[in-house]
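To close the chapter, one final illustration. This time we ask the reader to focus less on the individual chains and more on the assembly as a whole: which components sit near each other, and how the overall shape emerges from the parts.
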Amino acid sequence: MKIETSSEHSAPQPIQASGKKSALYENHVARGAKMVDFAGWQMPLQYGKVMEEHHSVREVAGLFDISHMGLVTVSSGNKDATRAFLEWLVPQDLSKLNPGKAVYTQFLNENGGIIDDIIVYELPELKTLSEFQEFLVICNAANTAQDIAWMKQQALKAEFAQLDLKFIQHEQYALLALQGPDFAHILARTGYDTDYLPKRFRIAEADIQGTPVLVSRTGYTGEDGVEIIVPAAKANVLWDLLLDLGRPLKLASVGLAARDTLRLEAAYPLHGHDISEADSPLEAGLGWSVKLEKHADFIGKKALQQQVIEGLKKEFFCFTLNKRTIARQHDVILKNGVPVGEVTSGSISPLFNVPIGMGYIRAGSILGPGDRVQIQVRDNAVDAEIVERPFYQKL
Amino acid sequence: MATEFTMPDDMLVAETHEYLRLMDDDRARVGISEFAASQLGDVVFVELPEIGQTFEQGESFGSIESVKAQSDLYMPVSGEVIAVNSQLADEPAMVNDDPYNGGWMLEILLPKPDETKKLMEPKAYLKSVEE
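The assembled structure is written out below.
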């Protein structure tokens, strides 16, 4: 065999000596993780088998280190003014937030293209971790610097120029994710009072055995669970505690490879693959997160309105393959032998044990779920069936 | 991080990482090395030929796919396929877990035993991949 590396983000790259390390780096190495360069960070790809890590999250729970993701607070000393600033930056309606509430949204460019997809939190008043003020943006590792630059550039606009906007990246914090049906049982074993668990898409402060944390009821796996912001100095203590207490329940540590198959089954887009500045949230099937009717104007609104008037030129769709192979990013999609689109993500679904994927297709070229296309996988045009999005839905 | 890869002494191996394990004078098993399986990562599909097909040395006899990559499989020597490991259809991870026993792929008849001269001894192979 020839050992080829694919363009998938999960393909291991040589570790760069200059790569950023999470506070848990040594811990991962000591636990035998295969480390990978991801967006300039050295992160665990897998600790054992990808399939087993995946199944652990679906059946029990998994613990992830996602410290590479950007934690950026936006504040000005005047929360309503900060909100008005962020309203200009995203197509979600931030007037619907309240203290502790979060939404999934995007930063868009003038053409409606997705600069990044993010979660915006309206922070509650915090007794601890008080450097987290007003609004928190959690963004993709590869885009964090660009997102901050984008926000700073927009802050120069005349209407915001008088605000004392501060953009603080909280690099002294680690971010863990505890995801899966048994997540609350595991949290409870730490002494966490799960009666006070934040509801879906809410964040709250908590104390886990003396460590102040922020607990967000969000995730990227298709399972219920939490993401925990913890001071980097306490990250190892919390990681070891959760793994120890979760062991009797079969909690697994899970790397980026299974994180990718988990999010793919849930049909969550990955920026840089499924979404980019060349795609609008409407084209990406994320229209549910776009509030064209919201009171505030926002960047990209005109372009999105235009797309609504003219109709979309491409659509995002999910497929399964009828052959046991994997369609990968940039594989060409054919309808009646004619190229009509491109795959953006593909893998095997560990849950359903079939090859799955997502991609864009020229609008009007398919009828919808049940219709068939072909995907050019290397030398073979492989039959694929259009299926409902997502492949897996629990939440 | 350095992992010590192994390979049983009774094998020969091609530069393309497929091993040949002679069962007797003209019959052998083919699979891929532990090193190659490790480079691929978790194997999810193995596509193997039909029994009765014949291949030349170096010809592709199938393909292997992991979560992260796909690769063609090449014949370490010419041969006729007399058995395939059908268990790999349901348990492709055997290639990772037990590449030299449960993870075998083909059993072949070797019409040209001389071709094994182009293959490497395990020690030389392991040295080449560890560099």
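Chain B has one domain: 11-112. The longest strand of chain B covers residues 18-24. With these observations in hand, you are ready for the problems at the end of the chapter.
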